Amino acid sequence: MRRLRRLRVVTRRERRRGRRYQPHFQLNQIGVTSLAALCAVLLLGVLSLWSGQVLIAAPLGASCVLLFGYPATPLAQPRNIVLGNVLGALVGVALVSVAGQGPVVLALAVALTIVLCQQLRCLHPPAGGMAFLAVYLKVGSGFLLFPVLSGSVLLVLLAWGFSRWVPGAQPYPRHWL
Length: 177
Prior knowledge:
mainly alpha, 75% helix, single chain
């Protein structure tokens, strides 16, 4: 009984700590941001079909979570989105051309992406996914332009326009470079 009471006390304390630390979102914000992400990914998909160029990759969906879900974070600023994703893809493409595929190359791609992004102050969590994807799919250098650079720039422009034109949207970006 005593252990159970202690467990409840610890659980309550941790929940309070988490509530203070985690951002709180109003219901209207949740609706607006999820609609924005839906539109952005849908637009990238439609543009991909229309143009014949691949403009979308899984890590760009993760970028949408930051761009539309929490645009005030430093990890969602244009510099981080574009440069982080491009660096991740570049590392992945370079490692594939030098070392091929494999678990060690996957791990090295993600680790090098983190190091470079931290050094260049453009940390963006989906960039690690971009490096992983580049190695896993064994992509060529064309991956850098389509979908990585083009998709990242389009997402940033969509987030910027969305923040200007949709009532209730959070301001974006906090800075461009």
